[in-house]
Amino acid sequence: MDALRNIIWTIIAMSLVYGIFVVLIPFEILSQNMRVFALDFGSFRYCGLVFIIGAVINLKYYWDLVFTGKGSPDPLIPTTALVSRGIYQYTRNPVYIGFSIILLGEAVFFTSFLLLIYSILWLLVFIFIVVFIEEPSLKRRYGQSVIR
Questions:
Q1: CA atoms 50, 51, 54, 55: torsion sign
Q2: Fewest CB within 10 angstroms: 1, 79, 84, 124, which?
Q3: DSSP for 5-67?
Q4: Angle, CA 78 vertex, CA 73 and CA 84 arms, to 5°
Q5: DSSP 108-130
Q6: How many domains does the chain contain in total?
Q7: The domain spanning residue 126 has which CATH number?
Q8: DSSP 80
Q9: What residues make up the domain containing 134?
């Protein structure tokens, strides 16, 4: 029953977060049609499709949290096991990397300077969250096994 609850909660949380911050807000920025600076990438803009890689990274992140970590991305339903395999061998924060790749990919694909600024601001927020909130919390919960 816990696994089903974690799956449902993860799908709801993922839908809300991505619906708001990856779809609605970028759509609103683009619909304003404000061109502060023209980003003319030409056909290079199709490299912005790299955001698909970010989506795959994030799907793997959620999968690992639910099925390996036996929890969810929500701090109210935290993982009960430290996930340290797969992409977690390289980073403890794949969701932030994936999220940033998605937003940067959107900025390049849609040639939007404002989306670029938006994605950079999120990257700074992620750095703050990792350094001042997540890392201290992980060290308290899992001790030395977090430190490599």
A1: negative
A2: 1
A3: HHHHHHHHHHHHHHIIIIIIHHHHHHHTT--SSB---GGGGGGGGGHHHHHHHHHHHHHHHHH
A4: 80
A5: HHTTBHHHHHHHHHHHHHHHHHI
A6: 1
A7: 1.20.120.1630
A8: S
A9: 2-146
143 by DSSP, 3-state: which?
helix
The residues, any chain, with a CB within 8 Å of residue 15's CB and separated by 6 or more, are none
The pLDDT, as a whole number, for residue 125 is 93
Report how far residue 24's alpha carbon sits from residue 7's, in angstroms, rounded to the nearest whole number.
24
User: Residues in the chain, how many?
Assistant: 148
- Contact of 37 with 109, CB cutoff 8 Å: no
Look at residue 15 and tell me whether its pLDDT is greater than 70: yes
Residue 29 reports pLDDT greater than 80: yes
The residues, ordered by sequence, that sit 6+ positions from 80 with a Cβ below 8 Å of its Cβ are: 69, 70, 71
The overall average pLDDT reported for the chain is 81
pLDDT of residue 38: 60
- Whether the model clears a pTM of 0.85, i.e. scores above it, the answer is no
Mean pLDDT of 20-44: 75
Residue 1 has pLDDT above 60, yes or no: no
